[in-house]
Amino acid sequence: PATVPGCVHTDWFQGKSHTDDPYYRFNDDNLKWIAESNWSYTRTFQVDNEVMAQREQWLVMEGIDTFADVILNGKTIGRTINMFLTYRFNVTEILQKHFNMLVVGFTSAVSKSKQCYSDLPYTVPPICPPDVQHGFCHINVIRKEQCSFSWDWGPGFATQGIWKPIYLSAFNTSTLIGASALYNWGNNGMQFDLKLQTSITSGLLSGNFSIEIKGLEIHKIFTNITFPKTQDGISSLKLSIDLKSTDFKRWWPNGYGPQTLYNVSIHHNSSTFETSSRNFRFGFRKVELVQEPIPGSTGLSFYFRINDVPVFAKGANWIPADSFKSRITTERFENLLGSARDAHMNMLRVWGVGWGVRETTRLYEADEYGIMLWQDFMFACAMYPANKDFLANVTQEVETQVERLKHHPSIVIWAGNNENEAALATNWYNTSSHFARYKTDYVALYADTIMPIVQKLDPSRPFLTSSPTNGVESAKEGYVAKNPYSDYYGDVHYYNYNDNCLDWTKFPKTRFASEYGFQSWPSFEAIQQVSEPQDWTITSNWSEHRNHHGSGNQEMLSQISMHFQIPDSSNCTEDFINTIYLTQVVMQGLCYKAQTEFYRRARNHLFKGAGHTMGALYWQLNDIWEAPTWSSTEYGGKWKAVHYFASEFFAPVALSAFDNDTVLEVYSVSDMGGVINDTVIVTIRTWSGFTPVGAFSQPVSIPVHSASNLFQESIGSLLHYGNCPYKELCYLSINLQNTPQVPVTHFFPVPFKTIDGLADPNIKSVVKVSENEFLLSLNADSPALFVWLEASGIKGRFSENAFVMYRPDFNITFFS
């Protein structure tokens, strides 16, 4: 039997062994036949007297993936063509009381996309994904989750199925089917607007509405409200409530204040005394995307101002949490959002591949966590058609999604697409010979279709046509800038796998870094679930197949070799486990730390007009399956090493130490609203023991919302003061004397592979168990680099991990 909500793949997998799981070994290739076949869902049902007694009955299908004929009692009542739409079919004349047969007959999206592509008058690239992704072709010509045909971080299963609820809706005159909210700020308050959607049988109809906002003691009744019937049987109306600024508390991002939310309840009584209702949580906040001249620069700023406070955006990019949405549990979402919050993130960029499934509700619980959302529309890394039918399809999709989501205070910006401006401007897909044609299509889709809809339905938020983009400067250039990666405007995506990732001089001096990253492998514990022993080397056929980023495994090894020795022993499995560890600590942990700290240091600084960085969103927070990707949490939610690093480099106040042409510079970065007066201590240590060999201290004052240079001194002078005969013997620790919540940071003057004096630390542990917690007391004989703790088979996280053991005793808590 089929499960609804669900898809064909998960129904096929039910009751089978783990080797039949779509994620197991090479099954992403082996199961392509499922996507390439047509499938049907069939259900018989009866209807009770109460439903049949109503004047109208409608079949509501909240999500169909993707192409289907809907047949009730032998009659085709509709066709679906968009995964992101809710479909409503009037079945009043077809529905029967005692016996009904519903058939949802799916056409393979793979074959349908080929047909749609062949119908186009010219090529709309890319035709197919790179071979390394093992995916399907032509995803950009249909409206389906774009990554479902494969991506460089995920498999292509091209799912089919009824992925959201399906049900009957019956009523005599009218029923409330949707509600959204906006507000307009004034000098002393705001106008709170509710947009209500009702399904009606005839019109002009009237009814009463009751609006209650709990916590504000507002209960307002609107009587004899009339609304005309529209062609599709859905009528919209707006009700307004005036609020004073003293009536409500504002919603703030994580780290800036409380996430005050109010429960809004709407009750509708029709003229025939039918009742229906809608409820949602809502928060009041003001958002501005500031693009203004900067003294000393030829460009413009690019930052978010929330409730009149400039906010440095700290966070990551979100991708779909599973290829099969029915497998995404509430627990998994809460773990991911909690992981973002606990790493001091305040923003996630919801990347342009799919509005998600449970993401449609669970992800937007970011409201509760104080996580701002940069919401992309679902267009990514491609050119798209701009014919009449495609634009009409997109219009419905955009209207549906904006109305559905705009009441969430966490959403602070809409963006038209991911990287499509850059793809066109820099000729990713050999479009330069027909540039004018593709630019016309680009403008038609994002500037002439999506943007006006968003600005009409949701004027409360900024809109960008793309990311990366030069923002208002791109608009001046006709929405496709000559250089969308400018350091002087907008946001930037930056990837560099060849240079030393710790060399801060290589990083872009951007206004806002909305993507950057490095790959790592997930834990060996995760790998074991989907592989076999013959797969456990970095160069195995499976390892190469699993990495959808071309040369990804080789790039990781190359980066490791700059800093550490590559594991090379007679035990291949041990080498693989150690290589996994090094990809997490080096290729990600240290690389993300160096780059993110640079962006945070640059918030107050210009580099020949560039800089003034006000956002750092690394790629990516989460995984869709067990594979080498750019994520900081692996499939299932376990923290990789880099996520522990992130909890420190994203701390509200952090210290950053770096080599600036043989001079040690120590910066503070602060998101705090108050000045911190303290003393910075630079301690000189050796690898042979725990006793410091020297220290410098200096009183400091850390300003509000700032990046400040606290300390600078020649590295050679510091080491000489500590009687360190050569750099390979020593390292430095930096901390604030009286603010212990600020993480200790370390400076290493040489590559790790050239360190001298490291001995076996002989780390011993004592474990104490209490309810949901394990307390580990660690003791070492000598310093140790990047100590990694595992709790195999137990879900949870450590209070600290991948840490430098610079003192003999550490107490670590594991929370399960």
Strand arrangement in the largest pleated sheet = 26-25-24-23-22-31
The level 1 CATH classification of the domain at 8-167 is Mainly Beta
Q: What fraction of residues sit in β-strands?
A: 25-35%
The CATH architecture of the domain at 8-167 would be Sandwich
Distance between the termini: 36 Å
Enzyme class: hydrolase
Domain Mannosidase Ig/CBM-like: 663-753
Pathway: Glycan metabolism; N-glycan degradation
Domain Beta-mannosidase Ig-fold: 758-807
Topology at a glance:
Elements: H1 8-13, H2 27-30, H3 32-36, E1 39-45, H4 49-52, E2 56-61, E3 64-65, E4 67-72, E5 75-80, E6 87-90, E7 100-107, H5 109-118, E8 149-151, E9 154-156, E10 161-162, E11 166-171, E12 174-185, E13 189-200, E14 205-214, E15 218-227, E16 234-244, E17 262-270, E18 275-282, E19 287-290, E20 303-306, E21 309-311, E22 313-318, H6 330-342, E23 347-350, H7 366-369, E24 372-376, H8 388-405, E25 411-415, H9 420-425, H10 435-457, E26 463-464, H11 472-476, E27 492-494, E28 513-516, H12 524-528, H13 541-546, H14 552-561, H15 572-601, E29 606-607, E30 610-611, E31 615-618, H16 641-649, E32 653-659, E33 663-670, E34 676-686, E35 694-702, E36 706-714, H17 715-721, E37 730-736, E38 745-747, E39 764-770, E40 773-779, E41 784-787, E42 797-798, E43 803-805, E44 809-815
Parallel strand pairs: 22-23, 22-31, 23-24, 24-25, 25-26, 27-28
Antiparallel strand pairs: 1-7, 2-6, 2-11, 3-10, 4-5, 4-7, 8-9, 12-13, 13-16, 14-15, 14-17, 17-18, 19-20, 20-21, 29-30, 32-33, 33-36, 34-35, 34-37, 37-38, 39-40, 40-44, 41-43, 42-44
Helix pairs in contact: 8-10, 14-15, 15-16
